Amino acid sequence: MRALQYLLLLLVISVGLAASVPRQRRQIDLTVSAEHDDKDDETELALEAIAGLWSSADSRTKIDGSARLVHRTQGTQSGSQQDFRVGVRITFDK
After folding, report:
1. Below-70 pLDDT ranges, the chain
2. Which keywords does this Swiss-Prot/TrEMBL entry list (predicted)?
3. Residue 72: inside a domain, yes or no?
4. Residue 3 parent element (H or E)
5. Burial profile 72-91: b = 16 or more Cβ within 10 angstroms, e = fewer
6. Which domain does 86 fall in, by range?
7. Per residue in 78-91, pLDDT tens?
8. C-beta neighbour count of 51 within 10 angstroms
9. What residues have CB less than 8 Å from 75, skipping those under 6 apart?
């Protein structure tokens, strides 16, 4: 769960940094999901954030970023697993 806290802290810091520069319109999509499998006694929690980080004046070049955290626990095991991924996508339009 500590990784989830770091992801949320990163999101808050990035929003704070974006607020310190001249105002620009930004959209951040935040998705939270949970699944439980009774057969395997497994629970999975996922948090994903996708944001438009930068766009050129003519909107032909864009940079998007994403972060995803998945936390899995199994009732029969004492431990848990975490998977954290960060991605960047750059788009060039003609």
Report:
1. 1-4, 7, 15-25, 76-78
2. Signal
3. yes
4. helix 2-20
5. bbeeeeeeeeeeeeeeeeee
6. 27-93
7. 677 888 888 888 89
8. 19
9. 41, 42
* CB-based contact 62:56 (threshold 8 Å): yes
Whether 87 is covered by a domain: the verdict is yes
Residue 76 domain flag: yes
Tell me whether residue 75 is in a domain.
yes
d(C-alpha 66, C-alpha 38), whole Å: 31
Residue with tokens 């009774």: 38
Inter-residue contact 89 to 64 (CB < 8 Å) = yes
pTM over 0.85: no
In the chain, how many domains are there?
Answer: 1
**8-state DSSP, 71:** E
Among residues 87, 31, 89, 12, the alpha carbon closest in space to that of 55 is found at 89
Calpha distance 12→73 (Å, rounded): 26
